[in-house]
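Quick one, T. Sequence first:
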Amino acid sequence: MLAAHWRTAVLGLTMAVSTPFTPHCQAVGTRGASAAVAAAEELVYARTDDGIVDAGAVFTPRGSVDKRIAVIWIHGNGVNFYYPSYVKLARELAQRGLTTIVGNTRMHDLGNIEAFRETANVRGGSYWGITTDQVRDVGAWVQLAKDRGFDRVVLVGHSAGATAVQIYTERTQDSRVAGMVLASGRFRPASGPIVDSARLARAKQLVADGHGEDPVPRTAPGSTQSPTSAATLVDLAGMGAELTDFYGVQTPNPPVARVRVPILAWFGTNGDVGTAEDLGLLEATLKKLQGGPSRVSTAMIPQATHMFDGREAQVAQVLADWVNRVVLAAR
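Structure tokens:
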């Protein structure tokens, strides 16, 4: 019975995009006795201001719920809200008293259909999505938290998801955001252009000709091929320092200077994309800013990989401690 219920819910992620609906959430059975004690779990949908329906899940602590803060977790490249580590981590956070929303953006997985429209389907995912449009997705999740009675939120971006929460926080100056977390997200400046000039010129021409969803082959000698669309590449190339040097290691007046909330950043010690040296550079860079984040905290998670498989409890503890010690204490 539970398996059938779960299968129906998963299929609903696709069906819900084209089917009108009223409620924000649909209950999903909880797997496992320990999880059932720790949290109530729901499948939820958030509608963006441009009509995209994002799927996610809310993990709510059993008993009294602290409405002062909710955690919103945004996935990395090529995955989605129900990646196993994310689910386990959300359960760990709920067990520590933090309601956690794990949500998709339009960039989830490598490719997807975000909406069925009369003129053309709206594609998303790493190969077709528009990175900067994730501001709309994050905004929808913040609104869902507000609709559920939470005063403020902490935005967590894992890996490439860090870009989504960074540009949302910087661009919108949303007073409901109480903290921002860089969870194994790269921050060192890019060593070269995000898109080489020949490929970008081809991408711009395709967009101008109305073929933004067409793939643009890489032109650099020896490079592997990628089906990334023209519109995706043009958007990435146009982000400037928001993508290449958000924290200002080499860029004056970087985007992070417009972020006012406390920041937490971490990496794992087991082959992650960054090191303790990188975190030291981040701290030193932000100290030089005029303005910017109110406080910066960093952590290395022992034995954790980039996806922190098997180390979800340790990650949850670092995050929960920071929320209680820094975010809530600052109110």
